[in-house]
C-alpha cells in the first residue's frame, strides 16, 4: 500500500524550505529506512548526521547568489544502491512511503541542482559504478561509474568517449543529468547531439522498474536533474581512439592568445579542447612550468598530427610553446583546468574577494574582448573553443545580485549569448519535462523544487529565457 506523498506546500517560490522543519514526517522516513535496509543491507542506508550533511551540498558556493540562500535543504536519509536494479528498487520503496527522492553522483554540480530541497531521501549512485559492456562504437555503464574509469575502459578496446566533462572524476549519471558538454565538444557538440545511445530510467511509481530507451527517446531525460525520471544505466557512443597531446602555449598579450581560439579549434583532426586565460587567471591555476604566471595561457588537447600546425600558429602570433605532453593522465589534467575550473581557482586564489560568473558565448568574446570585460567592473574572461563559436565564463568581483542582472542586457547588446547560472531550475526544455510529470512522477517526488513555472523567479527576472545551454555542471 502506498503512503500519501509528503506535503511539499511549504516550499517557497524560490524552492527554499524552512531550515527548522523536517520536510517529511519522521515516521515515514523511518519506515522507508527499514525497508531499504532489507533491500540494501545495513551498509546501504544511512541516517547519520555526517552522511546527511555530505548528501545535502554540492558546488553551489561557486555562485554567491545561491550561496547567500544556503542551506537550501537537508537530507533525512541516504541510500547507496550498488547497481541499476537496486536504484529502481530504492525509487519504488521511496514512492510507496511518500518520500521525495533526490539523485546525486559526486555532487560536483555548481548551482544547487542536487540539493534535497524537500528533505527526504538522497539516492547516492556512486556505488553503482560497473562498466556493463564495451562494444564497437558504444559503452554501457551504471550511473555511478566515474568518467575517468569509462575513458580507460574505452581505451583498452582501442576507442574513446566522444566527450567528457572537465570534472573527470564525476559520474556518468551526473554528467548526463546535469551537464552539457566538455572535452570533445568542439567536434561533437553537447550531450544531446548523439552522445547518449541508450538509457535505463526509473519513474516515480510504487512498482518502479527499469525502462529501456534508445536513440531520440533518451533526450527527454537529459540535463533535467532527475526530475523527469531517475537515470540508472547509460549507453554512450565511442569512436576510434586518437593519439592526443596536451599542448601549452603562452603570450604576452591576452588578445593574441584569445585570437587563436578559433584557428586552433578549426585544425583537422579537430582538437578535443582549446582553452585560454589572461595572466590573472593563469596565475591562479595550479603551479606548472608550462603556465608562466605573468603571461596569458592557451591550452589545447591536440591530435598529434596537428601539433606542428598549432606550433606555427602560436609562433606567428608572437607566442611561445611551453610544453607538449602525451598520455591520458596529461590530457585529463589539462581538462581539469578548463570550463568552470579556472574560475574556481580564481576564487580560491583571492579568498578575501567574492566573485561571480556568467556563462557567455559568441564571436564577440574574441572580436570585442575589451568591451565584454567592461560589462562588469574588474571582469575577467575565461574562453573555450566550441563548435561554431567560442564560449566562456565571464567572472567579476561580486557586490550584490542586483548588480549582476543589468549586465545581461549589456551582453546582448554586444551580441554575446549568456546563461544565468545563479539558479537551480531545469532550463533545458522545461515545458517538455513538466508535461511528462503526470506520468513519470505523479506525486511530485522527484527532486522537488527544481521544476518551475515560466513566471517563477530565476534570479534574472520573471521569465526563464535562456539563450544558451548550461556549459558544464556535473
Predict the CATH topology of the domain at 245-419. Vanillyl-alcohol Oxidase, Chain A, domain 3
Query: How many individual β-strands?
Result: 18
Q: Terminal Cα separation, in Å? A: 36 Å
CATH H level, superfamily name of the domain at 245-419: FAD-linked oxidases, C-terminal domain
| Average pLDDT, all residues | 90
Segments where pLDDT lies below 50 for 5+ residues?
1-21, 456-474
Q: Strand count, sense and closure of the main sheet?
A: 8 strands, antiparallel
Radius of gyration: 22 Å
Helix vs. strand class: alpha+beta
Level-1 CATH class name of the domain at 245-419: Alpha Beta
Number of distinct helices: 17
**Largest sheet, order of strands side by side?**
14-11-13-12-16-17-15-18
CATH architecture assignment of the domain at 245-419: 3-Layer(aba) Sandwich
What proportion of the residues is helical, as a percent range?
A: 25-40%
Beta-strand level of the residues, as a percent range? 15-25%
The 3D shape can be described as: globular
3D structure, described in words:
This protein has an eight-stranded antiparallel beta sheet with strand order 14-11-13-12-16-17-15-18, with helices on both faces. Strands 5, 6, 7, 8, 9 and 10 form a six-stranded antiparallel beta sheet that branches. It has 17 helices and 18 strands. Helix 1 packs antiparallel against helix 4. Among the domains are: 111 residues, Uridine Diphospho-n-acetylenolpyruvylglucosamine Reductase, domain 3, CATH 3.30.465.10; 175 residues, FAD-linked oxidases, C-terminal domain (Vanillyl-alcohol Oxidase, Chain A, domain 3, 3-Layer(aba) Sandwich). The protein is an alpha+beta fold and 474 residues long. Helices cover 28% and strands 21% of the residues.
Amino acid at each position: 500500500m502506498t503512503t500519501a506523498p509528503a506535503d511539499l506546500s511549504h516550499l517557497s517560490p524560490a524552492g527554499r524550505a524552512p531550515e527548522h522543519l523536517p520536510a517529511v514526517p519522521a515516521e515515514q522516513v523511518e519506515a522507508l529506512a527499514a525497508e531499504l535496509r532489507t533491500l540494501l543491507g545495513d551498509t546501504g542506508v544511512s541516517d547519520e548526521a555526517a552522511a546527511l550533511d555530505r548528501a545535502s551540498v554540492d558546488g553551489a558556493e561557486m555562485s554567491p547568489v545561491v550561496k547567500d540562500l544556503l542551506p537550501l535543504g537537508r537530507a533525512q536519509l541516504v541510500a547507496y544502491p550498488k547497481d541499476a536494479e537496486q536504484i529502481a528498487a530504492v525509487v519504488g520503496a521511496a514512492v510507496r512511503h511518500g518520500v521525495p527522492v533526490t539523485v546525486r553522483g559526486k555532487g560536483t554540480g555548481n548551482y544547487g541542482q542536487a540539493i534535497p530541497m524537500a528533505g527526504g531521501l538522497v539516492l547516492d549512485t556512486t556505488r553503482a559504478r560497473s562498466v556493463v559492456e564495451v562494444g564497437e562504437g558504444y559503452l554501457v555503464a551504471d550511473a555511478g561509474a566515474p568518467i575517468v574509469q569509462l575513458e580507460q575502459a574505452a581505451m583498452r578496446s582501442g576507442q574513446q568517449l566522444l566527450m567528457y566533462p572537465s570534472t573527470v572524476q564525476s559520474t556518468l549519471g551526473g554528467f548526463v543529468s546535469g551537464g552539457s558538454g566538455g572535452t570533445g565538444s568542439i567536434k561533437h557538440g553537447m550531450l544531446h547531439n548523439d552522445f547518449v545511445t541508450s538509457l535505463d530510467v526509473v519513474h516515480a511509481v510504487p512498482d518502479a522498474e527499469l525502462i529501456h530507451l534508445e536513440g531520440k527517446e533518451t533526450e527527454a531525460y537529459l540535463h533535467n536533474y532527475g526530475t523527469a525520471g531517475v537515470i540508472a544505466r547509460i549507453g554512450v557512443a565511442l569512436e576510434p581512439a586518437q593519439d592526443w597531446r596536451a599542448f601549452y602555449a603562452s603570450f604576452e598579450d591576452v588578445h593574441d592568445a584569445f585570437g587563436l581560439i578559433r584557428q586552433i579549434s578549426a585544425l583537422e583532426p579537430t582538437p578535443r579542447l582549446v582553452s585560454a586565460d589572461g595572466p590573472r587567471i593563469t596565475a591562479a591555476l595550479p603551479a606548472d612550468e608550462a603556465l608562466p604566471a605573468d603571461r596569458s595561457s592557451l591550452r589545447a588537447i591536440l591530435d598529434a598530427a596537428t601539433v606542428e600546425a598549432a606550433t606555427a600558429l602560436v609562433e606567428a602570433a608572437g607566442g611561445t610553446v611551453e610544453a607538449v605532453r602525451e598520455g591520458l593522465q596529461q590530457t585529463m589534467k589539462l581538462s581539469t583546468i578548463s570550463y568552470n575550473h579556472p574560475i574556481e581557482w580564481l576564487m580560491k586564489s583571492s579568498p578575501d574577494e567574492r566573485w561571480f560568473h556568467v556563462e557567455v558565448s559568441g564571436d564577440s568574446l574574441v572580436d570585442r574582448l575589451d568591451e565584454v570585460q567592461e560589462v562588469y567592473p574588474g571582469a575577467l574572461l575565461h574562453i573555450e573553443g566550441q563548435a561554431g563559436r567560442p564560449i566562456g565564463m565571464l567572472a567579476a568581483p561580486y557586490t550584490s545580485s542586483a548588480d549582476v542582472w543589468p549586465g545581461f542586457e549589456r551582453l546582448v547588446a554586444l551580441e554575446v549569448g549568456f546563461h544565468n547560472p545563479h539558479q537551480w531550475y531545469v532550463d533545458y526544455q522545461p515545458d517538455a519535462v513538466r508535461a511528462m510529470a503526470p506520468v513519470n512522477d505523479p506525486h511530485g517526488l522527484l527532486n522537488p523544487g527544481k521544476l518551475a513555472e515560466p513566471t517563477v523567479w530565476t534570479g534574472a527576472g520573471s521569465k526563464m529565457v535562456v539563450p544558451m545551454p548550461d556549459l558544464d555542471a556535473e
